[in-house]
Backbone:
């Protein structure tokens, strides 16, 4: 049992050693420990404050990003709307230009048709005239085979010339 019950002298010197150690720690180590703990607490407080500021800045950045995204979407919609208007306008201009060009082509074709009709009519008249002259020539040639008919034609032509002069 002596192992479990210490001697009075041992307890006394243990208390004295503990007291000296406690006073030495109290005098020298405790201020340094408190100073370190205080600086550590201050550093943690600054870290928390920095984190809060960073969170606020992040929230503000998110709000700004959302604002910029909304503005970009609005601008994109405006650009798409303008592009659609331009597309419609270009298509309409192309349609009008095509109609004008088609009208020009049709007018040109009508003019060509009219000219070709006139030329065909003129050719027809020329051919009819040639046939008529050929027929008249043949008829006159038959009638003029007789000498008496020839003399009468010459006399009538001379009479017409005299009347004109």
Residues:
């Amino acid at each position: 049992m002596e192992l479990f019950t210490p001697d009075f002298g041992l307890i006394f010197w243990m208390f004295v050693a503990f007291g000296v150690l406690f006073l030495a720690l109290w005098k020298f180590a405790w201020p340094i420990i408190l100073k370190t703990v205080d600086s550590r607490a201050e550093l943690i407080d600054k870290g928390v404050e920095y984190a809060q500021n960073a969170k606020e800045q992040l929230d503000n950045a998110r709000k700004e990003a959302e604002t910029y995204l909304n503005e970009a979407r609005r601008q994109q919609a405006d650009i798409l709307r303008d592009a659609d208007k331009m597309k419609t306008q270009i298509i309409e201009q192309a349609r009008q230009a095509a109609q004008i060009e088609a009208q020009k082509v049709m007018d040109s074709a009508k003019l060509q048709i009219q000219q070709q009709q006139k030329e065909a009519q003129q050719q027809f008249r020329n051919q009819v005239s040639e046939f008529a002259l050929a027929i008249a020539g043949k008829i006159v040639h038959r009638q003029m085979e007789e000498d008496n008919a020839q003399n009468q034609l010459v006399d009538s032509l001379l009479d017409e010339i005299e009347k004109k002069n």
